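RETRY 2/3 - previous attempt timed out on the joint model. Re-submitting the same 259-residue input unchanged.
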Amino acid sequence: MSLRPVLATTAAVALGGAAGALLRWGLGEAAPDGTGFPATTFAINVVGCFALALLPALGAVRTRPTLALALGPGLLGGFTTLSAYAEQARVLLADGRTALAATYVVGTLGACLLAVAVAGSWADRSTTAQQRQDLAAEGVEE
Amino acid sequence: MTGLLTGLLVALGAAVGAPLRYWLGRGLDRPGSWHVGTLAANTLGSLLLGLCTAFALEGAALGLLGTGFCGALTTYSSFAVQARERGARAGSAYAVTTVALALLAVGAGFWCGAQVA
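RETRY 2/3 succeeded.
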């Protein structure tokens, strides 16, 4: 791969990722997770998963690979987070709130997998296998 | 004003973390196999966030390294979509491994940091 597409791709993912993280941070400031069930991070991850699985259904994304990268691995990759989720579970476990930690860990995983199953089946119906393969080759799922 | 600065640092950290995850994925993930690159990014980011917490980072430093860099280096959405693509059996194994490694990594990072801090 020559330098130009590498730079364009990096810039697209960086810009999208910065916007996604800002959005996640802003939501956390507006509605802090507090000490109970981390509802804000839960909602961020479920919504982000749903949107990423739905992305191939967006016509503009299929014709503009750079936009696909800015929105997929960029915006939605930066919006959702596994590290905060793991850290929140660690704090709940350290506080001896094992049941709540387990509910959060399993609940987020289940809800996110369900969200991609539903959104993914919608996207599958509005795209061809070739279109999805082309998007995957661009690294939209990375 | 502090809020604005923290927001800028969150964006800056994420502008580094997100492309790092992307290129780890492009470089190490193989079609039809495990997403080793994404798994590595998720595990590494969780380890680093555990360290950040142990060092009691807050404000601008936490925004840059924790919320920005670690938050964007790790991802739930790519991982969940990848798990679906892999099908029920391999996808479940990938999902459980990702979550288990993230929990272990955040615990290890926190423990290591607590020894030093």
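The radius of gyration of chain A is 17 Å. Closing ticket.
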